[in-house]
Specification:
Structural class: mainly beta
Distance between the termini: 13 Å
Largest sheet: 8 strands, antiparallel
Shape: globular
Oligomer: single chain
Order of helices and strands: EEEEEEEEEEEEEEEEEEEEEEEEEEHEEE
Radius of gyration: 19 Å
Number of strands: 29
Low-confidence stretches: 1-5
């Protein structure tokens, strides 16, 4: 196991690019993790999916496992059906959040119900004290809404702007969606207060955006270090921003495929267990209960884990 992180300059905002990938037929921009930024607080993964209209049947992600994290889905446009190994079946619609806690292990699938899809998919690394808890799934159809300057704000996670999200998380963090009304005739402006003991990042999902006077192209983010009291925002009408933050997570974590763990051995064990369960519907595998729960009730085939052979996992703090 090695470490691989380039320290960011202290005390000033830093603009970072994203990289393009594909998930279930949807083009995504992956902002976290990257070499310069492995986590923002406990947020260890951030994908901006779409907006996109892939050929029918749209985004289709077969059953796959998770350990040691929470998946956090913020739906902006479209509808996606979530199924998991707890027996949950839930359609997520615009303005809603799905929060799945993997803990010791869970599996799920994701299937578009509409052609058009636009969402943010984030992961939260569970702290060592909670990373083996039993899995659970929670759906949040109603989230607190507020105004900050000229923006409509939705508090997705944690506390911000005098509101608290109902989403059950296990680390001090926050997440807010900001949207400038499309009918505005002038730029939207705001000075958004932040917690000094949190680090933060602002990602531009759409529109012409400036953060602290710096131009932020679509699909890029700006990192704001601990000690930042507020952030100045300006953008064109109908722009959308995502602001995340959290208390710096000092625990070193490993992130590989769909797993968050602490050692390579944990990763290999989870991979081996998943591959055995993906190939069988039996209630017991090698005399032990299924780690990832009952087979997901999806028509899609389970995804197979890539090989760990020759992979040098890099720990990040």
């Amino acid at each position: 196991m090695t470490t691989d992180s380039a320290p960011l300059p202290a005390g000033s905002p830093v603009r970072l690019p994203t990289r393009i990938a594909d998930v279930g037929g949807i083009p995504i921009h992956r902002a976290i993790p990257q070499r310069a930024l492995r986590k923002v607080g406990a947020w260890c993964f951030l994908d901006h999916a779409g907006p996109a209209e892939p050929p029918p049947p749209g985004m289709q992600v077969g059953p796959h496992p998770h350990i040691g994290l929470q998946t956090f889905t913020w739906m902006i446009e479209g509808e996606v059906l979530h199924r998991d190994s707890l027996g949950s079946e839930q359609i997520i619609r615009p303005g809603q959040v799905n929060l799945m806690t993997a803990g010791h292990g869970i599996a799920h699938s994701e299937e578009s119900q509409t052609v058009h899809v636009h969402a943010a998919q984030l992961w939260i690394a569970l702290p060592d004290s909670h990373r083996h808890i039993p899995p659970r799934f929670q759906h949040y159809p109603d989230l607190p809404r507020a105004r900050v300057g000229d923006f409509d704000a939705t508090v997705l996670a944690g506390e911000a702007l005098g509101h608290a999200s109902p989403a059950q998380v296990h680390s001090p963090l926050m997440g807010v969606d900001l949207h400038a009304h499309p009918d505005r005739t002038s730029p939207a402006r705001a000075r958004m207060p932040l917690r000094r003991d949190f680090e933060h990042a602002v990602m531009s999902l759409s529109g012409h955006v400036e953060v602290e006077g710096l131009h932020l192209p679509e699909q890029e983010l700006i990192y704001l270090p601990v000690g930042t009291e507020a952030v100045d925002l300006q953008c064109t009408p109908d722009s959308r921003l995502l602001v995340i933050g959290g208390e710096p997570m000092d625990e070193a974590i490993l992130l590989w495929w769909n797993f968050v763990a602490r050692t390579t051995e944990e990763m290999q064990q989870a991979r081996t267990q998943w591959e055995a369960e993906a190939a069988s519907n039996a209630p017991m595998i090698d005399g032990q209960p299924r780690r990832f729960g009952v087979p997901v009730a999806s028509p899609l085939q389970p995804l197979h884990a890539p090989s760990l052979e020759g992979v040098a996992l890099r720990a990040s703090r």
